[in-house]
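Trying the structure run again after the queue cleared.
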Amino acid sequence: MIKSEKQWMIQQPNEQQIATLQNELNITSLAAKILISRGYETPTKAKVILHMNESHLHDPYLLNGMKEAVERIEEALNQGEKILIYGDYDADGVTSTTVMMNVLLDLGADVDFCIPNRFTHGYGPHEELFKKAYEDGVQLIITVDNGISGIEPIRIAKELGMDVIVTDHHEPGDVLPPADVIIHPRVPEGHYPFEDLAGVGVAFKLAHALYGEVPEHLFEFAAIGTVADLVPLVGENRYLVKQGIKQLRQSNNPWVRALCEVTSVKQHEIDEEVIGFYFGPRLNAIGRLGDADPGVAFLMSENELDATIGAKLLNDKNTERKEIVNEITKQAIEMIENNEVISNSLVTVIAKEGWNPGVIGIVASRLVEKYYKPTIVLSLDVAKGMAKGSGRSIEGFHLYNELAKNRDILPHFGGHPMAAGMTFSLEHVDELRTRLDTQARACLTEEMLTPKLIIDVPVDIGEISVESIGEIKKLGPFGTGFSKPNYALQNVQIRSMRKIGAGENHIKMELEDEFGIIDAIGFNKGYLHEEISYGVQLSFVGDLQINEWQGNKKPQFMIADVKTNEWQLFDYRGKGQVQKWASALPIEDSLIVAFNEKTVPLFESTVKAQIQLVNTDNMIESKAQYLVLLDLPESFDLLERVLSHYSPKRIYAIFHTPESKFFNGMPTREHFAWYYSFLKKRPGFQLKNYMEQLSQHIGLNVEVIKFMTNVFFELGFVKIDNGLTTIDESAPKRALSDAQVYKKRVQQIEIEQALLYAPYVELKQWFNDRMKEYHYS
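Done. Tokens:
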């Protein structure tokens, strides 16, 4: 048995709907399953995804306030007023700022930008920066990706005589800022046909209105900001990202080529994953560690030199960010593991002085992934007496609402069901942990604390081909709201497997079912080599990719998780190199059994664990998951008694046998008769001196001759005196099978045949029959 890392929730698409989409849209079953699982179960709905065009872009003037914003900006352009773009320090904010800088510079504006420092100013409008803008002669401020919560700073800007246009997409509060114009897809509620634009999407709409036509050269910025901000990739967002990816692949902008260079990405292969895992993190890193202004400068690079320098800076900052995150994560895990109060709480609240507040949100995400608990990571400023933190949650624990129940100790917080930020007095850290733990125990069940993996595309190997995987890519972009599929291969078997990589950390397999065979790779899953046995029905979850090598393309399954409900037999019979196979045994959770006391000293120094001696006088009760059988029992009954007391998930069969009887076999009655006659004719025969010659003469192994001699001796047919063997003709007649030594040999040969020399399939069946009888009948 192999337990999956997460609880799998496998969905089963409607077969009739699959057939309908396949036939009417001429697509593969895989593509049809993905569309159905995303809610596009009819041909009409599916065509919306398959055939997107410019009609998916809404008129920018449908946004409330757009007409007034354009008029005010045009007035500023006509009057030569100084304009300030006030952005944000994440990738969405940086791209939003870049979009507005591009359009206003194109229109001849006197424009500059300002991005608050995460550490000095915090998020959103800042009074000090607005006052500086006034001193610099700014007459119009346009916020991008922020502003909807900046009530007081915007009020001050208005008092100073500046006009403010807010463009934002974040959650609006009950009170709106006193800006001249607010452009927000959800303010007022329900006025715009698509509510899920990112900050850069709102900026793009304003650019569209200002240009008077779709600004195609800005699609690439819109794509990066939209993907990086994790907004739903449906509707208008989907069109922006699709067009942006198309533009990025063929762009002549030096910053695109420079970004591809530092990330080792081929420009023609840019997609949403490249943006999400390579481009976005680098644009985010610059603002996590300091001023984000270089991010905007990079995206506006007009020559190769500036672009190369900017890309290197972003890459260096991202490397630095990774190192900081890794170190904080390491420290956090140590604190959790060594503190029972923290580890036993259903909500992890962990704090330390000096942690970089720009990256603790990433750390919180990692801790949620590891422990699957709502988590808040806090950076303590002892001098100011404040704790600043980021939180990440799990399904069933609405983080914002739960924090809102603690407003008396949380004067500043904000966020969403799954993420939040906060600043409060460090004296309340322990109290917050206690309160949130109590709240979590009231709403989180044990099942809710088990991570779940939604698997929406169960597949047969026969459905997978280079062509079907290529078609799936055309369904992209995948992301929030249109998630990348999780594929399940159910009830497949291992055809072959081996460890790969310099440290043998990875595994390569061939998987097969009744429909075909596919290669599979598991990165950092080399340990599965010791956990998976052949002949077992397994289920795998993962991704599908095309592996291209020397011009040849093959489909490949990328393993994310695996499970089986079957017990497994690991066959180590006849294996040399004891040290090697012993190191593969799961010692800590194994019952290690020997039936012969002579076996114990042979293995105890190598196995380095307690070996339990089992015989007719003792039987061991154990809750260990695995059973290791070091040698053969004297009888089937003894091994069957072990199996009747114990139901292991794995059995490791070593069956060390110092003196095998199987290949020497059992001598026939004719052999016994000839040997008896031979000894009868030679009274006082010196058997020891002529054993080898006798063996050659009769054609039987020396060990067999000794066995026959022992049978005769036990039955009283012969006497042995001072090494001389003589027939006792007065001994009563008895059957050869009456001798215990005869019975024991027959039994040992049967045991060796069934357990030691049987093919793997037969041995597995032998154990199966008994496991079913004792535990599953």
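The chain has a mean pLDDT of 92. Worth checking whether this holds up in the mutant runs.
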